[in-house]
Specification:
single chain, mainly beta, Pectate Lyase C-like, 33-stranded parallel sheet, 5 helices, 8% helix
Length: 683
């Protein structure tokens, strides 16, 4: 490949790779200059020595993929005549004179239009590590205006370059992020679309290091962004508003975060944050109808939320990230917040919708103060003067899957700090919480940890949500899944148990909070292995909680009981309870609160306590085809229980009497309404 040379009316030499084959076919743009092959090769050798190796550096590899490369823009040539290349101003060769001819944007625009893709040397256009802030700032801003007109890029030299406020209008890159540093006393602003900043360090003394607004195609790659110690306000590495197609790839941030507002199709990929410095801002704050991807990043030692989708995040993907050493309130926050302030509220067009949070690692949580903290916080918060919950306002179509959330509050915090950690907190509709691993959550100083918390705000509920396939272990002395009100939801095929590595036991599998109403739902196929005194696979906290028209099918309860205080029109089918070390029975009902229309069938209960299945204040029930083993009393009916069918059950090794069922406090009138069929009792 040869070079095509062109001299302009301003004696500015442009050098372009010859787009021909060796046979000599022209590219149709410019003929070969009369300088001759020898002069061209001499120039190319000088160019490689003086600019590629010494000043452009890594720019060569980056620019080599461009269609047109300009390596000598900014040089004045004495002339190209008689087959010889004249002296070039600004070069290092012995035959080259000194001095520089600045670019004139207006004059060059039309002349150099064919040279889109050029690379301009900043060093040869007045930018020098030895220059003052003012000189470098003026030179760079002038060069950006010229490069934008030419469709060219800018190559920065190695060294620390002092600058003030810059307006980037063209792609700019350094020798590498460890060799080129912009020491910026002013904000660096992206003033045009399709601008790339790459392969350098930005060290800022401003609260916002880089800013972009109402542009598109902004790209930051292979950057270090850090701050001077003089910065004392909240730090933002990148502050962006109304930016479409923002790309932040392979960068390293020392403290500063990224703020995205009304940014469409963003990609934050493969970056690293070290946030353990004063006044650290959120690594990524997403708001104002922004949409995009936060993927493959590593975030360390946060003092705030690691990623905050603030009342916004439709069709965002947060995946394959590592969040390590979390000290803030949340790892990932995507809550809906309703407010009377119309400028700061969720609502139509400003929602968390279709968001995917997948395959992230969140670990090593420790609290700086007494508080409640959450791994993934996808809640509904109504701050209006008069709360008015609506399902349609909640998170919708969110998928939380494949995440590992572990090591919360592992060490006893100092000064009696009480930190209650929750793995996932969620209120929404038509969503999935599946295949997550939540483990090792400690309860120092009487803290109350929870694995997954659903629909807990007063008056809220989840509708059409599936919680399935999660493994929750070591939620110390507390709850695996705690629920508020649910409609048409599934809590299926989860494993809730102790942590084998350190023996930390979970006490409650699924707990219905006071006032909860679980309706038309399913709690099925779960494994509860709790292994602690007074532990329950399923429990309701008070008689104000209702289980209604819900299937409790195919669960395995090991070393734990069941305590449901109020259940109506529910079916308990095919469950296996092996509670040979825990005296808590399978109990449904409480005195004074009627349980109506329940079915108990095909269950197998092994119980070392006083009784296996205890039904209290039941009206209209069926107990059939159950097997009871190693019990004192297999079936105990208590209180105002009436209008039932008890048939085709078997009790193996019943220790106290041969009666089936046995009664406690059921008067003769109510006993007469209970049909007892053929049941078999072995003593």
């Amino acid at each position: 490949m040869g070079f095509l040379l062109r001299r302009t009316s301003k004696s500015v030499l442009m050098v372009q790779p010859e787009l021909t084959d060796r046979a000599g076919a022209t590219n149709g743009r410019f003929p070969l200059a009369p300088a001759g092959a020898g002069a061209v090769e001499d120039f190319r050798s000088s160019l490689a020595r003086d600019h590629i190796e010494g000043q452009v550096g890594a720019a060569e590899a980056r620019a080599s993929r461009r269609s047109f490369l300009v390596r000598a823009t900014g040089f004045a040539a004495a002339g190209v005549a008689g087959g010889a290349l004249g002296p070039l101003v600004g070069g290092n060769d012995a035959s080259v004179a000194t001095g520089r001819v600045p670019l004139a944007t207006a004059e060059l625009t039309a002349e150099f239009a064919p040279f889109t893709g050029a690379v301009l040397s900043a060093l040869l256009n007045g930018v020098d590590p030895r220059n003052s802030v003012g000189a470098n700032t003026a030179a760079l801003n002038e060069l950006h205006a010229s490069a934008a007109a030419l469709g060219a890029s800018i190559a920065l030299p190695p060294g620390e370059i002092l600058v003030g406020a810059l307006k980037l209008q063209a792609p700019m890159f350094g020798a590498s992020r460890t060799r080129t540093m912009l020491v910026a006393s002013g904000t660096v602003t992206f003033g045009a679309s399709d601008v790339e900043l790459a392969s350098l360090t930005v060290r800022s003394s401003c609260s916002s290091a880089l800013e972009a607004a109402n542009v598109s195609g902004v790209s930051l790659q292979d950057l270090n962004v850090e701050f001077e110690d003089s910065v004392t306000t909240s730090w933002l590495a990148i502050n962006s508003y109304g930016v479409s197609r923002l790309r932040v790839i392979g960068c390293r941030f020392r403290t500063g975060g990224i703020q995205l507002s009304r940014c469409d199709d963003f990609l934050i990929d493969g970056n690293y944050w070290d946030c353990e410095y004063k006044n650290s801002n959120e690594p990524c704050h997403i708001s104002g109808q922004s949409s995009g991807q936060f993927v493959n990043n590593t975030v360390c030692r946060t003092a705030t939320d690691a990623v905050d989708l603030y009342s916004s995040g439709h069709y965002c993907v947060i995946s394959n990230n590592r969040f390590l050493g979390l000290r803030g309130a949340c790892g990932i926050e995507c809550k809906v917040t309703m407010s009377n302030n119309l400028g700061n509220t969720s609502g139509p067009g400003n929602v968390v919708d279709g968001t995917i949070i997948a395959n992230n690692v969140l670990r090593d949580f420790s609290p700086p103060a007494t508080s409640t903290r959450v791994g993934i916080y996808a809640e509904y918060v109504d701050n209006r003067a008069v709360p008015m919950f609506s399902v349609t306002e909640t998170n919708r179509a969110i998928i939380i899957t494949g995440n590992v959330i572990e090591d919360m509050n592992v060490s006893n915090p100092p000064s009696g700090i009480i930190a209650s950690y929750w793995g996932i907190a969620f209120t929404g509709h038509n969503g999935l919480i599946t295949n997550n691993v939540i483990r090792r959550v400690r309860s120092w100083n009487s803290a109350r940890p929870i694995g997954i918390r659903l629909a807990q705000p007063t008056g809220s509920k989840c509708v059409g949500v599936r919680v399935a396939g999660n493994v929750i272990s070591g939620i110390e002395n507390s709850v695996g899944i705690e629920v508020g009100s649910l409609e048409r939801c599934q809590i299926d095929d989860n494993i809730i148990r102790q942590d084998d590595a350190n023996g930390i036991a979970t006490k409650i599998g699924v707990s219905l909070a006071a006032g909860a109403k679980v309706e038309d739902s399913s709690i099925s196929g779960n494994v509860f292995e709790l292994s602690s005194a007074a532990s329950f696979g399923i429990r309701t906290l008070s008689s104000t909680a209702l289980l209604s028209k819900t299937r409790v099918h195919g669960n395995t309860f090991r070393d734990c009981g069941v305590s449901v205080l109020v259940a109506q029109k529910c079916s308990f089918i095919g469950n296996i309870m092996d509670n040979s070390t825990n005296s808590e029975p399978f109990t449904v009902g409480v005195a004074g609160a009627a349980c109506r229309g329940n079915l108990y069938s095909g269950n197998h209960v092994t119980m070392s306590g006083d009784y296996a299945l205890c039904l209290i204040d039941h009206d209209g029930f069926v107990v059939t085809a159950n097997t009871f083993d190693n019990t004192a009393r297999a079936l105990l009916l208590s209180g105002s229980t009436r209008n039932g069918i008890v048939d085709s059950n078997i009790s193996l090794t019943q220790r106290l009497g041969r009666e089936f069922p046995q009664y406690s406090g059921v008067n003769s009138t109510n006993q007469a309404t209970i049909s007892v069929g053929l049941n078999k009792v072995l003593v």
